[in-house]
Amino acid sequence: MALLDGWTLAKEREVALSQEVARLGVTPILVVILVGENPASQLYVQMKAKACMRVGIDCQVQSLKSELSQQALLEILHNLNNDPRVHGILVQLPLPKHLDTREILEAIAPCKDVDGFHPLNVGRVYSNSLLKGFLPATAMGVMELLEHYDIPIKGQDVVIVGASNIIGKPLASLMLNAGASVSICHILTKDLSMYTQRADIICVGVGKPRLIRSEMVKEGAVIVDIGINKEGDRVVGDADFEALKDKVSYITPVPKGVGPMTISALLENTLLAAKTSLESSC
Prior knowledge:
This protein is α/β, with parallel strands linked by helices. The chain is built from 10 helices and 11 strands. The strands form 3 sheets. Strands 1-11-8-7-5-6 form a 6-stranded parallel beta sheet.
C-alpha cells in the first residue's frame, strides 16, 4: 500500500503557485462570502484564507449574518461581478436554508466562478471543452493527485460513490473525459458491493464513516476517500482505512489526502482568473 499524499503535493504546488503569482504583475484578489456561523464552514474558509496568504493571493472574507436576504446577497454578488479589482468569487456552502443556493451560484460571473459551480463552467466540464473556465476544485484535485502518482485512468473501471453536483457528477465527467468506464452510485443504489468489487478505482464522498469495507474492494484497487467525518476527537473518511491499507495499492489518508488538493485547485483557479482578466474583460 502507498499513500496518495495530497498534503505534500499541495505544498509543492504552493511553491510553484507563489512563483507564478510573483511574476503576474498584479495581486490576485479572491472574495469569499461566508453567510452565517456554521463552524465547519468557518474552518474551511480560514484554511482557504491561510493558503491564499502563503502564495500571495489577497483573500478577502465577507462574513455576513445568517438572516441575510436572497436579494441582499444577489446585490453583493452583482457588485463583485462588476468590480474589476476582484478576480475570483467564492460563496461558501452550505448556505442557510432560506437562501436559494442554485440562484446564488448562477449569479456569480462565470469568469470569476473559481469554485466551478456556475452552469456554464459545469457544461464545459461535461462537454470536455474547457478552453476557458474552471474545473470544480475537489474533482480537479482528485485528478491531479492521480496524475501525480502515475495512476492510469484510461480503460479503467471507476466507481464514484456520491452523485452530488459539487463532487460526484463533475468527477464522473472528468473520468469519462480521461477514458475511464464510470459507474455512479448513491443512496438509492441497491447493491453497492456489486459495483465496488470490480472497480479499479473507487472514489467515495458521502459523509458515512467506513462505508467502503475490505470485503467490498478487490486486491490492488485504488481508493480515493473524499469523505470527512468526526468520530469523537478523530477525523475519519468514508473508507475503512485500517482494514483496507494492506489490500489496496493506493489510498488517500483522511485528513491530508484530498482536502489539501481541493484548496490547491482553488488557488490554481484564482490565479487563472487573474491571468484571464489581464487578457480580456470579464
